[in-house]
């Protein structure tokens, strides 16, 4: 039986399959492992960030600092490597900083009882400013270790490659799915998204969960920053402006309720892929402006918000009829 | 009485905004007993429960569990100590599945991960013991309130090894469900659990509880065994005075049946909610609506007030056909309504008492004509005094008032708009005897002043007291209308037992 709460996810998958089919009808070349592999690689950093964003939105919060944290991490890594630090150590340091930064925001949100919007907005400016402080120019990276990572891939049929970045993103989603559905942390996040007050009265440790939640989101932002660094082989403080909004769009198009409490991590993967697919289509077409991506995403977002509202209304009506019949 | 207590509290004190809500309260609960905690609204019952269950911190006092001093700083800590709670409003999460709700925070795990299969199976087994057949994988929003309440109780019982607090557990249950719950409580008592139950139903207190502690104005009045406490004495303890004769029958001759109906509904109905009915309401009469939970009482009120749209019939006000497709339509015709779900549909918790009172009046005047501060103050003061709203502070956020006083504020809100027809859905639910009597007196007074009232209540005695007519509902049909001397508790109960399709 298809449950009402899974409808948005199914809609997302259906939209992705339909859109892909339409693309293939026009450009048969798009149906290849190469395109699919590139789709995953090109959107890896967005996908990783979107995993973190999914959790934050499921809890009813939002993390606006993500784009800035991605830029900061990438600049930090670039600067450290330039200074002679081994990339692996730089990666570890960058992840620690971004995770700690997230944890601090989570603690602030809980302790000051401030909306996540406000606290992470401050975080956004802070991280962006800190990135500028490290370097205002684009810092290129070249190191054998980085070349090694970039060279890693799993061969797919017909010259397709599942790159290290793509694997990293898929791994992030696997971790995300397990965290969301198979751990108490995941259940607590859903609970807080349903009602913070009820969750607290049911014994959900609010402070711990909020800190863990935003630490996780910070970690994923940091990981996305590393992915971005590998992807572009550089760190640039002006990069990834507004990526947090792309991530939010991917989460919502992926079927997660923007007000929290309902959605699937796996849906976000499809949300990311839909965005990537539109971009790929534009590349194949060659004449369209890349801003069409934004327009289509805007329309999809709107459609999803309407869809979720409708599902809510219909299920409320059904519940009313049921409780009337059973009461 | 002096046996070693399971849970003991001494000298508990708590203040909000400098107002003492609890003042040196002692409380003692033994294992294997069901202990009723009683008191008027604002007596401090809910606050005491919240302190004992870790939701609030106390200002002073000692708390001991099985002789050991404890200091639960959160609900989670209290749960770990073995103290479980079902709070007044069902506090589960609608967006989670049934199984997730039951096991939130204590999910069975295997190899560090939540074992969803076992969680589902356990939830199914657990709920089966309460006679609830719920799909553990369905979201809770799918189920009616009564089922959610039983799930909440099942959860609390399951996670509290020693002490269980139930704050108004039976408010949304019907008689059969109450008995099912009581069977479970007796079973738990036999297992040695200490159970504290807060309720306003004295019948239920005598039926289930062994001992009772009464609070009044934040102080403890006494703690007694129920077996040697006559009911009249208990009520006197709660009120601090003898119970006035509030349930005396009104003079049935007061029916004004000849005047034309000011409000008339013909064939009014909505599929799936309530079968088409005819209803005439005259000025100066109270139409009582009786019926079991789910018989279509609230649905009738929602239709009358335009919250739901009818799919058949017509409404007339003063003989002219009107459309009531939204509460705005209804308010424009002089309707007012106090909904059943006070917390979610009635009050706006963060606004002050004054703002809550003025809400409907301001809405009917339109936002372009704000109510002057002086007029607002005067109105708030008038209604606070007229309805004896306590504490008499118009600036206090309404969420800090007790249930009965919140209800008075909502009444004041509609009275301020000077309505011609006032619909009250369960105006006395969840409020204590004192406030209860005041609200009944108020209904009588409004009727005498020429207002038309529709009052929905599950308390039959109360309907008998103030109704000029009683409409009895069963299975979503209006099955019977009782007038004047026909209105007796027996007649209402008899009519409620009539199957709806036989009408």
Describe this entry's structure for a reader:
The complex is a heterodimer of chains A (327) and B (503). Chain A has helices at 7-26, 33-42, 44-58, 66-82, 87-112, 116-134, 144-151, 164-182, 184-194, 196-201, 206-232, 243-253, 265-285, 291-326; strands at 139-140, 153-156, 160-163, 234-235. Chain A has a two-stranded antiparallel sheet. Chain A has a two-stranded antiparallel ribbon with strand order 2-3. Helix content of chain A is 75%, strand content 4%. Chain A is mainly α and 327 residues long. Chain A is built from 14 helices and four strands. Chain A has a single domain, classed as ABC transporter involved in vitamin B12 uptake, BtuC. Chain B has 503 residues and is of the alpha/beta class. Chain B has three domains: 7-239, Rossmann fold, CATH 3.40.50; 262-334 and 421-432 and 451-503, 3-Layer(aba) Sandwich (Rossmann fold), CATH 3.40.50; 346-419, no CATH class. Chain B has a six-stranded mixed beta sheet, sandwiched between helices. Chain B has a six-stranded mixed beta sheet with strand order 18-19-20-15-21-22, with helices on both faces. The longest helix of chain B is centred in the middle third of the chain and has 16 residues, at 175-190. The termini of chain B are far apart. Chains A and B meet through helix 8, helix 9, helix 10 and helix 14 of A and helix 2, strand 8 and helix 5 of B.
Counting DSSP E segments of at least 2 residues, the number of strands of chain A comes to 4
Q: Provide mean pLDDT of chain A, rounded.
A: 91
Number of E strands of chain B: 22
Question: Largest protein interface?
Answer: A-B, 37 and 42 residues
Strands of the largest sheet of chain A, in order across it?
Answer: 1-4
> Could you give a short account of the major beta sheet of chain B?
6 strands, mixed
Overall number of domains of chain B: 3
Predict the CATH topology of the largest domain in chain B. Answer: Rossmann fold
| Rg of chain A, alpha carbons | 20 Å
What would the CATH topology of chain A be? ABC transporter involved in vitamin B12 uptake, BtuC
Principal-axes shape call of chain A: globular
What structural category arises from helix and sheet content of chain B?
A: alpha/beta
- Tally of contiguous helical segments of chain A: 14
Sheet of most strands of chain A: 2 strands, antiparallel
Strand order of the largest sheet of chain B: 6-9-10-3-11-12
Cα end-to-end separation of chain A: 25 Å
Low-pLDDT stretches of chain B are 241-249
């Amino acid at each position: 039986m298809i449950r009402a709460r899974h409808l948005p996810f199914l809609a997302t998958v259906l939209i992705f399959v339909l859109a892909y089919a339409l693309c293939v009808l026009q450009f048969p070349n798009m149906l290849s492992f190469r395109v699919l592999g590139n789709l995953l690689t090109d959107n890896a950093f967005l996908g990783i960030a979107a995993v973190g964003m999914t959790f934050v939105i499921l809890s009813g919060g939002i993390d606006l600092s993500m784009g800035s944290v991605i830029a900061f991490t990438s600049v930090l890594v670039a600067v450290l490597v330039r200074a002679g630090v081994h990339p692996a150590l730089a990666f570890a340091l960058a992840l620690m900083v971004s995770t700690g930064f997230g944890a601090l925001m989570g603690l602030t949100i809980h302790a000051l009882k401030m909306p996540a919007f406000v606290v992470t907005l401050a975080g956004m400016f802070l991280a962006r400013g800190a990135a500028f402080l490290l370097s205002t120019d684009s810092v290129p990276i070249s190191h054998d270790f980085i070349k090694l990572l970039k060279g890693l891939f799993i061969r797919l049929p017909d010259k397709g490659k599942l790159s290290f970045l793509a694997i990293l993103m898929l791994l992030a989603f696997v971790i995300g799915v397990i965290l969301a559905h198979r751990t108490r942390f995941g259940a607590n996040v859903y609970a807080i998204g349903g009602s913070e007050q009820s969750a607290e009265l049911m014994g959900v440790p609010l402070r711990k969960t909020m800190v863990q939640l935003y630490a996780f989101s910070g970690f994923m932002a940091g990981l996305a920053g590393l992915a971005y660094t590998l992807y572009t082989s550089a760190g640039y403080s002006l990069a990834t402006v507004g990526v947090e909004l792309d991530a939010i769009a991917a989460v919502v198009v992926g079927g997660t309720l923007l007000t929290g409490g309902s959605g699937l991590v796996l849906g976000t993967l499809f949300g990311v892929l839909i965005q990537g697919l539109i971009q790929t289509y534009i590349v194949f077409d060659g004449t369209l402006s890349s801003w069409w991506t934004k327009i289509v995403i805007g329309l999809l977002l709107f459609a999803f918000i309407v869809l979720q509202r409708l599902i809510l209304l219909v299920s409320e009506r059904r519940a009313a009829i049921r409780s009337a019949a059973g009461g | 009485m002096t046996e070693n207590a399971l849970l003991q509290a001494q000298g508990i004190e708590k203040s909000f905004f400098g107002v003492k809500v609890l003042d040196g309260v002692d409380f003692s609960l033994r294992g294997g007993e069901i202990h009723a905690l009683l008191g008027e609204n604002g007596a401090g019952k809910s606050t005491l429960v919240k302190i004992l269950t870790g939701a609030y911190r106390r200002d002073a006092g000692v708390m001991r569990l099985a002789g050991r001093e404890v200091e639960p700083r959160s609900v989670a800590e209290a749960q770990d100590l073995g103290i479980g709670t079902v709070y007044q409003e069902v506090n589960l999460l609608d967006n989670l599945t049934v199984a997730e709700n039951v096991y939130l925070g204590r999910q069975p795990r295997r190899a560090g991960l939540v074992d969803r299969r076992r969680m589902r199976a356990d939830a199914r087994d657990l709920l089966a013991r309460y006679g609830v057949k719920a799909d553990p994988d369905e979201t809770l929003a799918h189920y009616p309130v009564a089922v959610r309440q039983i799930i909440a109780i099942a959860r609390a019982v399951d996670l509290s090894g020693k002490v269980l607090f139930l704050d108004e557990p039976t408010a949304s249950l019907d008689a059969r469900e109450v008995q099912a719950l009581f069977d479970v409580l007796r079973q738990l008592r036999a297992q040695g659990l200490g159970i504290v139950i807060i309720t306003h139903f004295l019948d239920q207190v005598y039926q289930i509880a062994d001992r009772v502690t009464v609070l009044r104005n934040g102080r403890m009045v006494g703690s007694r065994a129920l077996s040697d406490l006559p009911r009249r004495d208990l009520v006197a303890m709660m009120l601090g005075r003898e119970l006035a004769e509030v349930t005396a029958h009104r003079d049935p001759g007061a029916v004004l049946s000849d005047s034309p109906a000011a409000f008339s509904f013909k064939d009014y109905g909505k599929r799936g909610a309530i079968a088409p009915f005819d209803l005439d309401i005259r000025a100066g009469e109270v139409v009582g609506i009786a019926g079991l939970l789910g018989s279509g009482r609230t649905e009738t009120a929602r239709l009358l007030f335009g919250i739901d749209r009818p799919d058949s019939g017509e409404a007339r006000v003063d003989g002219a056909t009107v459309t009531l497709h939204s509460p705005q339509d209804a308010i424009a015709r002089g309707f007012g309504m106090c909904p059943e779900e006070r917390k979610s549909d009635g009050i706006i918790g963060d606004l002050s008492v004054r703002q809550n009172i003025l809400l409907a009046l301001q809405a009917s005047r339109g936002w372009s004509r704000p109510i002057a501060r002086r007029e607002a103050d005067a109105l708030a003061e008038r209604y606070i005094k007229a309805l004896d709203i306590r504490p008499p502070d118009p600036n206090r956020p309404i969420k800090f008032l007790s249930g009965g006083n919140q209800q008075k504020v909502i009444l004041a809100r509609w009275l301020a708009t000077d309505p011609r027809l006032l619909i009250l859905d369960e105006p006395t639910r969840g409020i204590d005897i004192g406030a209860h009597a005041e609200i009944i007196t108020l209904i009588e007074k409004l009727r005498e002043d020429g207002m038309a009232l529709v009052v929905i209540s599950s308390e039959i005695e109360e309907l008998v007291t103030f109704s000029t007519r009683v409409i009895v509902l069963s299975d979503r049909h209006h099955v019977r209308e009782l007038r004047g001397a026909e209105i007796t508790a027996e007649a209402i109960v008899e009519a409620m037992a009539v199957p709806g399709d036989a009408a």
